[in-house]
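Need a sequence for this fold. Nothing fancy.
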């Protein structure tokens, strides 16, 4: 047999190998199918005999209170009369820190009030402005944001640690009259976030 059009016998044999691609293609499909099948079998749930938890874990207590050393914020209603927002002083004394929502004149502003360890009544907007949290708790001599855990001194609201140090609850002036904490409604409606 003579080489065609100037191809050597070696070149003819190598071009014949390239014509066998359908066999390689079929082999690749078979290998892919086996790999997919193995992956599916591996991912299917099976009974390995291992047990992650005992059937009934032992109980140390009926309830665990993780906030045991913290004073949680209590929601209380407020009243609005004659341009004054009011809450009972006795409730703040009892609960230590309370939150109430002012709704009026087209705005909603969450407010808080708490008693310091020296007996001062503090009223403020109940917002940690950078993280937008409205909930706080008291622990020892600190008021702490429930979202970012930034800590401020309870007496001075000076930042101690955390990401929102410069934005403690924004203090709003108040007075105490006849057992009621009174806040000027106009001051609350004009409040704007610092951030």
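Here you go.
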């Amino acid at each position: 047999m003579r080489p065609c059009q100037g191809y050597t016998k070696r070149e003819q044999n190598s071009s014949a190998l390239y014509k066998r691609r359908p066999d390689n293609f079929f082999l690749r499909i078979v290998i892919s199918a086996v790999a997919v099948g193995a992956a599916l079998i591996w991912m299917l749930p099976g009974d390995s005999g291992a047990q992650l938890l005992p059937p009934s874990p032992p109980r140390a207590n009926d309830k665990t209170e993780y906030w045991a050393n913290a004073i949680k914020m209590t929601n209380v209603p407020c009243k609005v009369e004659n341009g004054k927002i009011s809450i009972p002083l006795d409730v703040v004394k009892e609960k230590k820190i309370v939150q109430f929502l002012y709704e009026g004149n087209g705005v909603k502003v969450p407010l808080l009030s708490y008693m310091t360890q020296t007996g001062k009544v503090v009223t403020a907007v109940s917002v940690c402005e950078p993280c937008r949290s409205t909930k706080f708790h008291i622990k020892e001599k600190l008021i702490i944001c429930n979202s970012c855990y930034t800590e401020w001194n309870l007496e001075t609201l000076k930042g101690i640690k955390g990401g929102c140090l410069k934005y403690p609850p924004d203090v709003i002036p108040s007075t105490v009259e006849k057992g009621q904490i009174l806040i000027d409604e106009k001051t609350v409606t004009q409040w704007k976030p610092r951030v």
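For context: Residues 50-54, 56-62 have pLDDT under 50 and may be disordered.
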